[in-house]
Amino acid sequence: MSPKPLDYESLNENVKKVQYAVRGELYLRASELQKEGKKIIFTNVGNPHALGQKPLTFPRQVIALCQAPFLLDDPNVGLLFPADAIARAKHYLSLTSGGLGAYSDSRGLPGIRKEIAEFIERRDGYPSDPELIYLTDGASKGVMQMLNALIRNEKDGILVPVPQYPLYSAAISLYGGSLVPYYLEEEANWGLDINQLRQSISAARMKGLTVRAMVIINPGNPTGQCLSEANIKELLIFCYQENLVLLADEVYQQNIYQNERPFISSRKVLFDMGLPISKEVQLVSFHTVSKGYWGECGQRGGYFEMTNLPAKSVDEIYKVASISLSPNVPGQIFLGLMVNPPKPGDISYLKYATESKAILESLKRRAHIMTDGFNSCRNVVCNFTEGAMYSFPQIRLPPRAIEAAKSAGKAPDVFYCLKLLEATGISTVPGSGFGQKEGVFHLRTTILPAEEDMPAIMDSFKKFNDEFMEQYEDYRGYSRM
Amino acid sequence: MSPKPLDYESLNENVKKVQYAVRGELYLRASELQKEGKKIIFTNVGNPHALGQKPLTFPRQVIALCQAPFLLDDPNVGLLFPADAIARAKHYLSLTSGGLGAYSDSRGLPGIRKEIAEFIERRDGYPSDPELIYLTDGASKGVMQMLNALIRNEKDGILVPVPQYPLYSAAISLYGGSLVPYYLEEEANWGLDINQLRQSISAARMKGLTVRAMVIINPGNPTGQCLSEANIKELLIFCYQENLVLLADEVYQQNIYQNERPFISSRKVLFDMGLPISKEVQLVSFHTVSKGYWGECGQRGGYFEMTNLPAKSVDEIYKVASISLSPNVPGQIFLGLMVNPPKPGDISYLKYATESKAILESLKRRAHIMTDGFNSCRNVVCNFTEGAMYSFPQIRLPPRAIEAAKSAGKAPDVFYCLKLLEATGISTVPGSGFGQKEGVFHLRTTILPAEEDMPAIMDSFKKFNDEFMEQYEDYRGYSRM
């Protein structure tokens, strides 16, 4: 009998090709262990609230009032909500056409897009056009929309950093394109080397690919590096010379843990460069409420801004966005709040500023605790997390550990991470889920566990790791081979 | 110079092929007129809150508390919220891992999926497995996921009713498949004729297509008919014989305005039929919080349930859902509330029941006002809206109107709808956006304008239409040809 249309063998091959390790084998095993009653520390996804980070109070007050607008007429509302939250809720409701229960325009509410444009102008010093800002259910959905518009067939290549966040590899597979890797230099603090980029693009062209776009993740995920202005300039010249769209994933722009390289947007660098390049390079920049000190992942609020795209293409992207009608409206309002937080003098300013600062400073301390912890372990080396919310240590696995992994039918880093999970409950993602150079192994963990738990987690990691290394570095073992 | 990657000429052709009339030329023109200060009645999208429908109070209270969990510790919370809303908010927060700001599992929160499974069991009389229920950012996203999994190339055909909701045609274009139309019979109250289906599938196979799935929309959009149990049985036998997946769009299951054909789910009919068919036909059913008496479109909460899919395929669909991490969590909680509303005896029951009933009864009255209104117009005939929230009258355009449209470079129905918009501010969607038989013209309007505005809107429509007909039925006009 012939297979049915939704049997595995008859599914779209591109769907089957997708790999997505962040919720892959390790995550599934961790979920199983959790069901069995084991305490799991989920560091596989950058999901701050799941690890105890409290939401910022002011935005949650505003959104609660927007969801329950009848409270605005209640004489007791002032007992539970400050006046500026009440005023702000009225403001956002006035931007909707029918409150949070009505679809917005498929690009998002015009009033919110205007607030985002104003934020971008303040950030970069160049005006931004709300008509070129589209809101999405989280930044990932926007990335997928753009890749879908770019990829025509398997001959279209997209330059992606390796290690990379697997959204990119997964979406490129799903839409039937080809991933063209460029390697970040671990020894140079995960820096981006333009010569390496040129080699990658040449190699891809030799294989007959048309390279169409380049992805950067700044600050880096999983690698945590912050790009310098000089580096971004080089990149933009490269995109100009090679006729590439730059897809700038800047979702971690608030998460900076050092002073040497503050966040600078690709858009600002582009405009600073002046003509002709500032009018020529096509750029799409992504941002979100899921990261930063907000961490409002579950709300799914994101946007992308398009620079130097012709109006006709912008219209096509609008049309495709229209198929699913509207991004979720509460998530849009979170974006408005993120780009327009309480100001000095506002009733809620002090609380908002105190909460934000506490989260950011704690993340910075955790970045240090984690890097130092990894570097104190046998056969583990780790660059400092300059930005974003991940640590990506290299694990130098002894040959016997690699052998043991082979016997168990696992990739060596998967083998290590599974053992770590079973021994400690720490749920990480193997480096192979992000890509790594041949013969080199990593894991990714977020820096998000609560600060007070960090020392114990790192001790537990160290104990596991050092015992693991002891076991597999046993030279008597070799002599038996 | 060669075009840039995001120039129109270098975009993915499938993106360019997409058509989406619900937010097409008419909507854009209406938005322009609105900007110019004209009062527009947007009946182009089923967006109840945008036309003044008030949200149900209880779910909004619960979601406001979930967004602001710190209120639960406030001694004054009882002044603004009833005890059952407080209890329910605590319940839903206990189902999350970190509140509304944390990503859930990519399939949705397990606790909500369990509540949905219990609802389905109560509705159908057969148990449902939460592991086969996936939550999405509105039902449209789920439909797109399934079509993406099904469509391998342009030789894969999907049977779609004509007229249809253009989500289907648009998504099929986007994923590069082929739409295989089957016509609903306007004269038979938009009924579905199995012989017609057989002809459609034969014709598609003659063209070399592999027909993989069949879409039904029950209650119908834009056509408003409710399928009988006997009709669904025939369909399921057809799917069984022809090896088709049935995609059952049942988002309007609460919107029923007659008693002869209450809503019955495809899943219940399938299970009632017994073996072998109940274990053989692959079925995916869709539901949402956007429709019914909820109308919570802006929250983007939807789910799909998979029946008779092998575990390996369910896993593939999970993997692809994981790329964008998690559907929005507030939307998931709305789904929980929809399938588990206040019960008799609960503090909020009476209010909830009164509000829901008022909305549904008003919709029923509006369905009558609108159908009767259209049928009182010259050259307009309209089936009664048995369910859903649309009216789809046939407009019998005189030959001279068709000529005039041609001269204006417009499709005849687009011409008519544009004139209607300019004259009255009523923003409809031309029938060609949904598909219609050659030489026959329609428009779609929602039945959602406020009930008190309805008589004036229908008067305004009648005045425009009858004058339009008068103008173009002028036989002196013909004599000049």
Automatic annotation (TrEMBL), chains A, B:
Entry's EC annotation: 2.6.1.2, 2.6.1.4, 2.6.1.44
Reactions it catalyzes: glyoxylate + L-alanine = glycine + pyruvate; glycine + 2-oxoglutarate = glyoxylate + L-glutamate
The protein's enzyme class: transferase
Domain Aminotransferase class I/classII large: 84-449
Pfam family, one: Aminotran_1_2
Single GO molecular function: L-alanine:2-oxoglutarate aminotransferase activity
Pathway entry: Amino-acid degradation; L-alanine degradation via transaminase pathway; pyruvate from L-alanine: step 1/1; Photosynthesis; C4 acid pathway
Any one GO cellular component localisation term in the record: peroxisome
UniProt keyword Transferase present: yes
Keywords of the record: Aminotransferase, Pyridoxal phosphate, Transferase
Statement: the UniProt record of this protein carries the keyword Transferase: yes
GO terms under biological process: photorespiration
Cofactor: pyridoxal 5'-phosphate
Family: Belongs to the class-I pyridoxal-phosphate-dependent aminotransferase family. Alanine aminotransferase subfamily.
PANTHER family, alphabetized: ALANINE AMINOTRANSFERASE, GLUTAMATE--GLYOXYLATE AMINOTRANSFERASE 2
Subunit structure: Homodimer.
Function field: Transfer of C3 units between the cytosol of mesophyll and bundle sheath cells to maintain a nitrogen-carbon balance in the C4-dicarboxylic pathway.
Name of the featured protein: Alanine aminotransferase 2
Organism of provenance: Canna indica (Indian-shot)
Taxonomic path: Eukaryota, Viridiplantae, Streptophyta, Embryophyta, Tracheophyta
